[in-house]
Amino acid sequence: PPPGKSLEEVREAATKMYHALALAAVRVGSKTPVMSFDVRRCLRDMTELGIEISDDLVMSITKIATSKHHYRECLSLHRDLLEKELGRKPSTDKTVNSCLLFCSVESEDYSECEKFSRRVVASGEAPAAKDFANMMKFYFAIGKIDEALRLLQVLRSKSLVPDVITCNTLISNCVNARQMETAETILRELMKAGDDAGHSVADVVSFNTVMKGYSRQGDVAKCDELMSILKAKEVRVAHCVVVNTVWVLRYSLRW
């Protein structure tokens, strides 16, 4: 060690330096499409030098990579480098696995979604609404719609407010696939969640999307029913396109 410095002090300084380098590498990325090249080299060097790769460092790298939308690279970093190459045990941290679940869904790499969700549950911390939302996206993507709807009910039973953006996306997917019964089921679950929470969860987009689907089928009665609920719940009608469509449809059927 340098004069006046103990070996422990040098090791501590080196650890801080490598931690800073690893985080900087994730934030800045690399000139290649694979952002994790520099991070991988940094983590390999740490292992060779006997510098601990702490759980906090892994969490920070994972959170930053996820926020930078490096979804596939983040999954590969855990699976191929940390676990396979460096022999590190899979993280049991809720935040890490929640991020990995999100990365899997966003990158449409569904092979490990259930594994990450099990780890989130096994962490001992209650899954957040966003974790349920990601699993719902996963189940919809692989065609297990009943499982997705079951999760929506579980979410409400735990007094968690569903993510309306995710639910609106699922409603839109159902409408586009002409699965109107499922679309309306999601809408009504959002309404029930709103009743439980004491405020509206379903928004005008939720109603408009379902009404648009029914208007395409010429089902004026369903559109009228949803419009009545929309008004009764005092959801602000900011979009008039579907409302006008319903009126045009109603009068065209009369003629």
Automatic annotation (TrEMBL):
Q: Where are the PPR repeats?
A: 163-197, 203-237
**Cross-referenced InterPro entries:** PPR-containing_protein, PPR_rpt, TPR-like_helical_dom_sf
**From what superkingdom does this record's organism come?**
Eukaryota
Q: Which PANTHER family match?
A: MEMBRANE-ASSOCIATED SALT-INDUCIBLE PROTEIN-LIKE (PTHR47939), PENTACOTRIPEPTIDE-REPEAT REGION OF PRORP DOMAIN-CONTAINING PROTEIN (PTHR47939:SF5)
NCBIfam families, alphabetized: PPR
Could you identify this protein by its name?
Pentatricopeptide repeat-containing protein
